What we know:
The chain is mainly β. It is built from no helices and 11 strands.
Amino acid sequence: QVQLVESGGGLVQAGGSLRLSCAASGRTFSTNTMGWFRQAPGKEREFVAAIRWSAGRTYYADSVKGRFTISKDNAKNTVDLQMNSLKLEDTAVYYCAANYGLSNIWPVQANEYDYWGQGTQVTVSS
């Protein structure tokens, strides 16, 4: 079992920045990939960014590339998402997720992840 707890959400003006953090506990040693997803009202959950737990390689959705940065601290078992130049359309509940698959293909679908956090609200205002 793995427990994931997100923090850092809030209200920010367009163009501003927020940093989300995900704290993982439990069976983290065999994690393949950690990912961030988001879900806006009335929309499906969508992939935002992912990081390989061991190698640290990263992958981003086109909509956030160049604005968001995913990072990890293996010693603290945390994964952060630094969000800069926020736009109105970034408003959503953001979820942290853990993937235990063995594939080298980046997992970008929600059903490829095994554990989820409870989510944290990010609201971008004009």
